[in-house]
Write a structure and sequence with these properties.
Elements: E1 16-20, H1 25-36, E2 40-45, H2 48-61, E3 67-71, H3 77-86, E4 94-97, H4 115-138, E5 143-147, H5 170-195, E6 200-204, H6 213-220, H7 224-237, H8 241-244, H9 246-253, E7 262-263, H10 288-302
GO molecular function: oxidoreductase activity
InterPro entries: NAD(P)-bd_dom_sf, SDR_fam
Family: Belongs to the short-chain dehydrogenases/reductases (SDR) family.
């Protein structure tokens, strides 16, 4: 492993982090490494069995770690609200919006949103809004890190059809949801700056890492051959979750991070060297008008408002 790596994470003692989708893949590695450096880590996961198993794995990897599982289903806004209400303590230093779904067959969330847009963007938008007062209390060093994807370049958000009710295409839906992650980061960063807040909003993308994202959609449809092909591609071409987590961990802990940064591999496919803010970012993800429009729509759809910003 070359360049910046998890061994360079500063001491996180006394800090609290929430990591969504922390039961496997990049989310698990992110949670584990923060716990190793002394952070109190909440594993926010949909599946209780997998979440509790991940908690035990982190404890085994980081003896004495302060880590706990808490249930969170980003595809159900009532679950998002319950998680935020039940999160113990008043202080939160890091919110890692990591969980996501990719290229699923057309599905709806509990609240009726297109599943990829609803999970990847709206669930995290609501969660961030509900937890941001705690991040503000933490002050200097508090960050919101939202995990996007290099595949955001597949499409920008269409304000006339946020839920892709006309001609659903799974990969375009995924690209739009990941563009929404970046637009959200851009707009949040601007609002935090205008308020004079010391909370920093940034984004990251892992490149191509071997996780269960690649197989979930195929298995949901019973396409086992496609799932096995994806598993083979992961073994042959993908980088490890450890390498995939490096941009997220860098965005969460490095000293040179600025508002609205977007860190990823120097080469889009793999993390090679230190994560860089020069990774490819589509110009529409910095469009102020689009960001404000998505923000207003997200508040309306989720019922979570950021009035104090």
């Amino acid at each position: 492993m070359t360049g910046w790596n998890a061994s360079e994470i500063p001491d996180q003692s006394g800090r609290t982090a929430v990591v969504t989708g922390a039961n496997s893949g990049i989310g698990y590695v992110t949670a584990r490494e923060l716990a190793r450096r002394g952070a109190r880590v909440v594993l926010a996961c949909r599946d209780a069995t997998r979440g509790k198993a991940a908690e035990e794995r982190v404890r085994a990897a980081a003896p004495g770690a302060d880590v706990q599982f808490a249930p969170l289903d980003l595809a159900d806004l009532s679950s998002v609200r319950a998680f935020a209400a039940d999160l113990p303590g008043d202080r939160l230093d890091l919110l890692i919006n990591n969980a996501g779904v990719m290229a699923l067959p057309q599905r709806r969330t509990v609240d009726g949103f297109e599943m990829q847009f609803g999970t990847n963007h709206l669930g995290h938008f609501a969660l961030t809004g509900l937890l941001l007062p705690r991040l503000r209390e933490a002050g200097h060093g508090a960050r919101v890190v939202t995990v996007s994807s290099g595949l955001h370049v597949l499409g920008t958000v269409d304000p006339r059809d946020l839920n892709m009710e006309h001609r659903y295409r799974r990969w375009i839906a995924y690209g739009r949801s990941k563009s929404a992650n970046l637009l959200f980061t851009h707009e949040l960063a601007q609002r935090l700056t205008a308020e004079g807040s010391r909370v920093v909003a940034v984004a990251a993308h892992p490149g191509y890492a071997a996780t269960n994202l690649q197989t979930a959609g195929a298995r949901m449809e019973g396409r086992e051959a496609a799932a096995r092909l994806a598993e083979l591609a992961n073994r042959l071409f993908a980088q490890s979750p450890e390498d995939g987590a490096r941009p997220t961990l860098y965005a969460a802990t490095a000293q040179d991070v600025r508002q609205d940064d977007y860190f990823g591999p120097r080469f889009e496919y793999r993390s090679s060297g230190t994560p860089t803010r020069r990774t490819v970012r589509a110009p529409w993800t910095r469009n102020d008008r689009a960001g404000a429009g998505l923000w207003a729509a997200s508040e309306r759809l989720t019922g979570v408002t950021y009035d104090w910003l």
